C-alpha cells in the first residue's frame, strides 16, 4: 500500500466515477484502475462496485474511507506545519524574560519586525525560568550576566 493509492481511493470515492477521478488526478484511467486493483489485492477486499459508468463504495470501502481521509489529513497537516516551520517569514519567536524587563519587549518586537520584514511571526513571552519554558527561547533578556548567552535578534549573513 502506498500514499498514491490512498489519494486515488479517496478521489474515486468522492467522485464515484473513474474517468472524472482520473482527470482530476491527471493520470490515465488504466493507471488508476491498476492502482485500485493493487490496493484491493493487498487488502483482500473489493472497495468499489461498478454500476454502469459510475461506481459505489462497498461496505468495506465505506469502512476504510474515514481512515484514509484521516491519514491524508494528518499527513497534509504535517506537511503544512513543516513548511510553516522552515519558512523564514513565519513562525514563533519565544522570548524569555524576567517580569522587570517586560517593558523592553515591545521595542524589541518592533525592532525585530522592522529589521527582518517578517510579518507572519508570532511572539511568545515567557516570564519564568528559562528551564521551565516548553520551547527554547530565541531571545533571552537578563539583568545580570547569565551562563546562557542571549541570541541575536537578527543575524546578517
Question: Can you characterise this structure?
Answer:
- By secondary structure, this protein is α/β, with parallel strands linked by helices.
- 48% of the residues lie in helices and 15% in strands.
- β3, α5 and β4 form a beta-alpha-beta unit.
- The radius of gyration is 26 Å and the shape is elongated.
- The two termini are 45 Å apart.
* Low-pLDDT regions: 141-152
N→C terminal distance: 45 Å
Helix % is 40-55%
Order of strands in the sheet with the most strands? Answer: 4-3-5
Would you list the SSEs in sequence order as H and E? HHHEEHEHEE
The count of β-strands is 5
| Assembly status | single chain
Taking all residues together, what is the mean pLDDT? 79
β-strand amount:
15-25%
Amino acid at each position: 500500500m502506498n500514499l498514491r493509492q490512498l489519494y486515488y481511493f479517496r478521489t474515486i470515492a468522492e467522485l464515484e466515477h473513474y474517468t472524472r477521478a482520473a482527470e482530476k488526478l491527471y493520470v490515465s484511467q488504466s493507471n488508476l484502475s491498476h492502482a485500485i486493483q493493487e490496493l484491493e489485492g493487498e487488502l483482500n477486499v473489493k472497495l468499489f462496485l461498478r454500476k454502469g459508468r459510475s461506481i459505489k463504495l462497498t461496505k468495506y470501502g465505506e469502512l476504510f474511507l474515514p481512515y484514509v481521509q484521516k491519514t491524508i489529513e494528518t499527513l497534509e497537516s504535517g506537511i503544512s506545519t513543516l513548511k510553516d516551520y522552515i519558512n523564514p517569514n513565519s513562525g514563533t519567536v519565544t522570548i524569555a524574560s524576567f517580569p522587570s524587563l517586560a517593558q523592553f519587549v515591545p521595542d524589541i518586537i518592533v525592532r525585530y519586525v522592522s529589521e527582518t520584514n517578517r510579518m507572519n511571526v508570532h511572539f511568545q513571552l515567557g516570564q519564568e525560568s528559562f528551564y521551565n519554558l516548553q520551547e527554547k527561547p530565541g531571545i533571552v533578556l537578563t539583568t545580570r550576566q547569565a551562563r546562557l548567552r542571549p541570541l541575536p535578534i537578527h543575524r546578517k549573513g
